[in-house]
């Protein structure tokens, strides 16, 4: 029977190891895909931003060029009607500003031959217009104002030039608007693809982590079942107890090391996902700013889908990924904590139960005072020789749970009593809380399993940790409860620690 159980454990361990390796491989592959998508997204997003900025720069230059041209023409007409120096200064300022705008337009449109050709046409028209304006000023300057006015009325050459400038400017603006729409559509497509890739990768990582945790839990149940079978086989056989305990301890150490390695390796891809999520959240800000700018300057070009994607969909998706990774991080930390405690060496020493419980009561005094509750210690209590820290962790956890899961109908009352029976000490922690349903009396000791409505924070490792410590100390923990009336947890330990390998200490 013992050999069969050993073979079962080895086979289970090999299967779990292979399954976890497969899960880790899938997780790393998902991270690689998400990382590549993030790098590609950042690169394409920067290219889109540069292209949109370039489009806006061309549009701004066109608007300035047209404004200066029309301002110069308006100043010329005002100067013909009333030869004031203010009109002349305005016209001169506008004419001086036009060459820099046309040259900048020619340089900015170097990547678009059609647009550059139109820019050069604007430069030629601007030159003709400037010549016309200077000729008008020259006529008025030498006293031929009537001739200048007559020439303006009979053959106004400025109006056709301004009309041509407006037409070409409008054509260039229309082309830039079309380019802006195409670039924004490409940007939206890139964001949508990135969102899909990251969401799938994040969901895959969460699924892999949960599958690993479920596999670990099943492995733990198998181990506990094997341990119970060993205990039944060796009952009454003192010589076989040490051998069975040693086998069980090796299996327990193995699962603790396994839990530590798995949880430690899972943290690496998890940290990467959290980092990529932070980058995704940071990337949403410039995208939202760009949408705000488009909405302010050219609302007709902004679609509702684009605005929602930048302002709501992408931040919401990043938040979902972050909350999922945070939950997975808490679960991994719980496994790490459990595995670390399992590796600590127990150091038995004489323990005064009353003194130890007084310390726990003092620590929780502020909480019980807030709730008008009481922690009652029934004296006298038998002496123990055990690891003080482990015993304190067990009792503190049970008392804290009794206060945490109190009944809303009455103040919490926790009563701790102890008695000695046939070389063992039984410590009872009784409360008047909300109680535990009969079907959950054993399930609450399983890792990540909790009973009743989840109104209190927790990861479901407290009682699993209590049971693991009790087993290591050579004891057991049991629960008796009536739903709605309260619960009693009974810790049974040998009065003197036998150590973790069966030798008396």
Provide an overview of this structure.
- With 505 residues, the protein is α+β, with helices and mostly antiparallel strands.
- The protein is 72% helix and 9% strand.
- It folds into 3 domains: 2-50 and 184-343, Up-down Bundle (Glutathione S-transferase Yfyf (Class Pi), Chain A, domain 2), CATH 1.20.1050; 52-182, Four Helix Bundle (Hemerythrin (Met), subunit A) (Up-down Bundle); 348-494, Heat Shock Protein 90.
- The protein starts with a helix and ends in an 11-residue tail after the last strand.
- The strands form 2 sheets. Strands 2-4-5-7-6 form a 5-stranded mixed β-sheet, covered by helices on one side. Strands 1-3 form a two-stranded antiparallel sheet.
- It is built from 11 helices and 7 strands.
* Rg calc: 40 Å
Tally of discrete structural domains? 3
Q: Which class do the helix and strand fractions yield?
A: alpha+beta
Spatial order of the strands in the main sheet? 2-4-5-7-6
Overall, the morphology is elongated
Task: Offer a concise description of the structure.
The chain crosses the membrane at residues 20-39, 194-216. The chain is 72% helix and 9% strand.
Structure keywords:
alpha+beta; Glutathione S-transferase Yfyf (Class Pi), Chain A, domain 2; Four Helix Bundle (Hemerythrin (Met), subunit A); five-stranded mixed sheet; two-stranded antiparallel ribbon; disordered C terminus; HATPase_C_sf; EC 2.7.13.3; transmembrane helix
Helix and strand topology:
Blueprint: H1 2-81, H2 85-108, H3 113-141, H4 145-154, H5 158-233, H6 238-297, H7 304-343, E1 348-351, H8 353-363, H9 365-370, E2 374-377, E3 384-387, H10 388-404, E4 413-421, E5 424-431, H11 462-472, E6 476-482, E7 486-494
Parallel strand pairs: 2-4
Antiparallel strand pairs: 1-3, 4-5, 5-7, 6-7
Helix pairs in contact: 1-2, 1-3, 1-5, 1-6, 2-3, 3-4, 3-5, 5-6, 5-7, 6-7, 10-11
């Amino acid at each position: 029977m013992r050999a069969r159980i050993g073979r079962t454990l080895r086979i289970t361990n090999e299967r779990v190891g292979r399954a976890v390796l497969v899960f880790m491989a899938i997780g790393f592959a998902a991270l690689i895909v998400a990382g590549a998508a993030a790098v590609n997204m950042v690169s394409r997003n920067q290219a889109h931003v540069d292209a949109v900025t370039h489009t806006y720069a061309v549009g701004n230059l066109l608007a300035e060029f047209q404004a200066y041209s029309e301002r110069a023409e308006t100043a010329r007409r005002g100067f013909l009607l009333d030869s004031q120096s203010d009109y002349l200064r305005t016209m001169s300022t506008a004419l001086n500003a036009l060459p820099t705008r046309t040259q900048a337009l020619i340089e900015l449109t170097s990547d678009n031959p059609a647009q550059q050709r139109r820019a050069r046409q604007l430069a030629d028209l601007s030159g003709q217009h400037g010549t016309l304006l200077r000729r008008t000023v020259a006529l008025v300057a030498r006293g031929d104002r009537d001739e200048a006015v007559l020439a303006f009325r009979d053959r106004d050459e400025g109006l056709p030039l301004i009309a041509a400038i407006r037409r070409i400017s409008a054509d260039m603006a229309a082309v830039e608007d079309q380019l802006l729409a195409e670039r924004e559509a490409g940007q939206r497509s890139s964001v949508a693809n990135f969102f899909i890739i990251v969401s799938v990768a994040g969901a895959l990582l969460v699924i892999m982590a949960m599958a690993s945790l479920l596999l670990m839990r099943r492995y733990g149940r198998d181990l506990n079942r094997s341990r119970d079978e060993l205990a039944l086989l060796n009952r009454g056989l003192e010589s076989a107890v040490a051998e069975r305990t040693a086998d069980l301890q090796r299996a327990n150490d193995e699962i603790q090391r396994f839990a530590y390695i798995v949880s430690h390796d899972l943290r690496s891809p998890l940290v990467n996902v959290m980092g990529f999520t932070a980058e995704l959240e940071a990337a949403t800000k410039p995208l939202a700013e760009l949408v705000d700018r488009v909405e302010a300057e050219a609302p007709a070009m902004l679609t509702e889908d684009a605005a929602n994607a930048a302002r709501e969909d992408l931040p919401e998706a990043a938040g979902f990924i972050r909350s999922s990774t945070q939950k997975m991080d808490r679960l991994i930390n719980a496994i790490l904590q459990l595995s670390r405690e399992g590796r600590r060496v127990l150091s038995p020493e004489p323990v005064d139960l009353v003194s130890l419980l007084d310390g726990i009561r003092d620590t929780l005094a502020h909480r019980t005072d807030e709730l008008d509750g009481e922690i009652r210690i029934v004296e006298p209590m038998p002496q123990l020789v055990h690891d003080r820290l482990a015993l304190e962790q067990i009792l503190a956890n049970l008392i804290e749970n009794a206060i945490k899961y109190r009944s809303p109908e009455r103040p919490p009352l926790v009563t701790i009593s102890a008695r000695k029976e046939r070389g063992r000490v039984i410590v009872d922690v009784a409360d008047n809380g909300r109680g535990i349903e009969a079907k959950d009396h054993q399930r609450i000791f399983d890792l990540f399993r909790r009973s009743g409505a989840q109104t209190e924070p927790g990861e479901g490792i407290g009682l699993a940790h209590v049971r693991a410590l009790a087993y290591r100390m050579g004891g057991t923990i049991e629960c008796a409860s009536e739903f709605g009336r309260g619960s009693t947890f009974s810790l049974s330990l040998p009065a003197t620690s036998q150590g973790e390998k069966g030798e008396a200490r």
